[in-house]
Amino acid sequence: MHCTVEICCGSYEDALVAYKGNADRIELTAALYIGGVTPSTACVTLVKRDTDFPVCVMIRPRGAGFCYSHAEFECMYEETRDLLNHGADGIVFGFLNPDFSINAEYTAKLVELVHANHKEAIMHRAFDCTSADTRALKQLIDLGIDRVLTSGGKKTALEGKDMLNELVQHADNSIEILAGGGIHADNAAEIIAATGVTQIHSSCHDWKADPTTVGKTVAYNYADGAHTGMYDAVSLEKVQALKQAVARI
Questions:
Q1: Is the pTM of this model over 0.85?
Q2: Is residue 13 within 8 Å of residue 206, measured between CB atoms?
Q3: Partners of 208 in the β-ladder
Q4: Tens-of-pLDDT digits for all 249 residues of the chain?
Q5: Cβ-proximal residues to 167 (8 Å cutoff; 6+ apart), any chain
Q6: How far apart are CA 225 and CA 229, in angstroms?
Q7: Hey, what long-range contacts does 94-98 have (CB within 8 A, 24 or more apart)?
Q8: Beta strands in 120-188 (DSSP E)
Q9: How many helices and strands in the chain, by DSSP H and E?
Q10: SS3 of 233, please?
Q11: How far lies 61's CA from each of 127, 144, 179, 228, in Å?
Q12: From CA 187, how far away is CA 166, in angstroms rounded?
């Protein structure tokens, strides 16, 4: 059984590492320390120039949740148009209402734009903030979403394996289920066996030091403890280990 390995990349450099590690596909974002936001068109252009795997691009204007104002949606819509024109193979997004239900109006509009450009419309883990059950999945199917990234409504895919299995069974080839959330080389086989998914998503991140993070009078840390003065980036060794673990299934 072939299982697609998608790597979450926060930069052009991350994408090159994932490519060298033989990833099947990437989700390209920026500012992963706040969950990811929209990357630049320059980043997408460079990744498409120097790799040949599918590049799915996140559209997200800020950190925190997924309940967006009309102004935020307008910006996301135009960014989607721009990034599709720069080679994005898919657009990753999520729109919720204040009650955690899926915002059908905004979702439908973005799906229409993406499909008009013959690309994939993917909902990210905003889905896990909904009921994350078969009823919510049916709504995504009706809205035309091609794939959903989910941990089965739990913090990790391992914890949500029972719901992931139920979602896979309910999907019935109408939508793709991409399992994500704490997946790595040591647990990928267990998650795949327990859920029946044929696609997994992983950050495969490690930490790198930047000596200019902490100065004499100011500091720009976003991590603390052992990771003070560091930033997260895709690890070639972790990508390769994950691919090897999946290949053994």
A1: yes
A2: no
A3: 231
A4: 789 999 999 999 999 999 999 999 999 999 999 999 999 999 999 999 999 999 999 999 999 999 999 999 999 999 999 999 999 999 999 999 999 999 999 999 999 999 999 999 999 999 999 999 999 999 999 999 999 999 999 999 999 999 999 999 999 889 999 999 999 999 999 999 999 999 999 999 999 999 999 999 999 999 999 999 999 999 999 999 999 999 998
A5: 133, 134, 137, 148, 150, 152, 177
A6: 9
A7: 94/66, 94/123, 94/124, 94/125, 94/126, 94/127, 95/66, 95/67, 95/68, 95/126, 96/65, 96/66, 96/67, 96/126, 96/129, 96/130, 97/67, 98/67
A8: 120-123, 147-150, 176-180
A9: 8, 10
A10: strand
A11: 17, 23, 24, 26
A12: 19
Query: Within its chain, how far is the Cα of 24 from the centroid?
Result: 14
Choose among 60, 5, 50, 53: nearest CA to 29: 60
Dig out the tokens for 9 from the structure.
């990349």
CB 118 within 8 A of CB 87: no
Q: Which two tokens stand for residue 36?
A: 């990811």
Task: Let me know: does 55 contact 15? Beta carbons within 8 Å.
Answer: yes
End-to-end CA distance of the chain: 7
